[in-house]
């Protein structure tokens, strides 16, 4: 990943990656998914809270048997929560993880070239088991 | 919860007969979890072991442990009781507690796992000035934990005394002291590894117990939820209103605002609770953190769905009179329901189920207090001691020793407060902990992760502003004075009408962080933010 032509401190790999197009893609893909969805589910939840407060008659209307609108609305909150969780996991697995893995791999390679001070021990990739016990925990950053 | 004064039904009749059974089940849980704790403690050597369980848990294991950490006595006993007494309005708690997990999933869990090591403050200190933000974040972590801990301790004392039919102030204090002592043992010996196992076991027990009662309740009503709701409404004495919103919070405009305030605190508080945040560090990767939150959402969601059967079942089969007679706040609704579905007060089945569910309730309290003690002592040692007081010069051995000492100290504080604060209302304390977490912790964390321009001054205003405003508003609320059920009766210095401060303090926390950042002359550390952002999204260089 060569983004060194951009106007960033050449000695700082993180700034280079941050300014690069691959990371821009990853950030956009994450934010465009997570931010609107957060606004949406909080609004949906607040709508439910407000309806419970100020639309008593509507919430009390019968749907079937003893089950009223309020109860259905409550169950829908469960349903949407499960669905959003599943949807985000799917998005992250398909769109975010592969991009993140590529960027990390090339960044860690260039970091290893830059200095040999961490020895790579603190990087645990998704597939390896944790070996942080042996990692230099004391070098906070 | 002022149960010991009205310890009537349970104490006099069935509970005293079955005390031995409850006690043996409870002892079995304590002894086996202590054994696991000792085993985990022997394998626990480094700071990563003690603080983060060696980051060796799988997503599923951690999801289970998160559920065990999150589903407190307030969830299990409190919501079942609230639904049994107030019908639909009690169910609103279940929804808020669950939806809140999406904030953690979408915005917090993975970036936190990628960029921090042991505490929330790690993330803030990454790009802001280390000592002031660690002091602020450590303080708010400990304040939130103590409020939450206090709620559990007060609940434990009253409830255990109530369920075991032990009468008297001395016995209640003894129970609080024993709970406190056990949690300190879990934490100091087992560290995060031991505590995680305790929470996993507790989650399995809680889900199994709840599932069993749910199946028995639904079976009683021919697996027809509508029939169950109808029977609950009939038995509640409120008729159809029992199934509609408003029984608890619909009295007037103020109580409706209070409900919005509570709703906000619940949905935004979870992702700022320190004992939940530290759990994300116990897995090796951000991906595993995501998996664990997804498991937690599934498990917690299933549990809260079952509170419908527990609460409405208790209303239908036990009835509000017997529930309030046993405990005015409704906290014994779930155990009483277990007894009813087991065959009733005089049957062996009823006795066994009552004992099982009561033991599950104790296990629940113990696991949650252990999680809280661990989170706050880790923050004390890692943030306040090592990085602020010792300016980073403390070695790992010293920090671990301080963490263990802090656990003992926090345990002692919790025991003493729990003993003397028995008049405090458990639900109000839990909701306050959520409100403080949402006002002081969440804004700073989100700004730090996502806002390039954010500065140390913004973080400090946000944390201290959110913290003091939420705590002060509670001090001047009806929770503390002015009403019959207040902490202090006979005086009235309440001028803030809402019981939950969230509606004011949460927007204030966000606003202060924003304004103070715009006003500060400090240049944001662009390089550090680049590192934080790249790391939080890719996991490069993560511990």
UniProtKB/TrEMBL annotation, chain B:
What are the entry keywords?
Cell membrane, Membrane, Symport, Transmembrane, Transmembrane helix, Transport
GO BP: any one term = plasma membrane acetate transport
Give an example GO molecular function: symporter activity
The highest taxon in the source lineage is: Bacteria
Q: Read off the InterPro entries from this record.
A: Na/Glc_symporter_sf (IPR038377), Na/solute_symporter (IPR001734), Sodium:Solute_Symporter (IPR050277)
UniProt-annotated location(s) = Cell membrane
Chain segments annotated as coiled-coil in the UniProt record = none
**Transmembrane segments annotated in the record for this chain:** 20-41, 62-85, 91-109, 136-164, 170-189, 201-218, 259-281, 293-318, 351-380, 401-421, 427-447, 459-480, 500-519
Q: Where's it mainly located?
A: membrane
A Gene Ontology term for the protein's cellular component: plasma membrane
On whether RNA-binding is a keyword of this UniProt record, the answer is no
Describe its membrane topology: Multi-pass membrane protein
Gene3D superfamilies recorded for this chain?
Sodium/glucose cotransporter
**Which family would the database say this protein is a member of?**
Belongs to the sodium:solute symporter (SSF) (TC 2.A.21) family.
For this protein, the record's PANTHER family field holds: CATION_ACETATE SYMPORTER ACTP (PTHR48086:SF6), SODIUM/PROLINE SYMPORTER-RELATED (PTHR48086)
List the protein's name.
Answer: Acetate permease
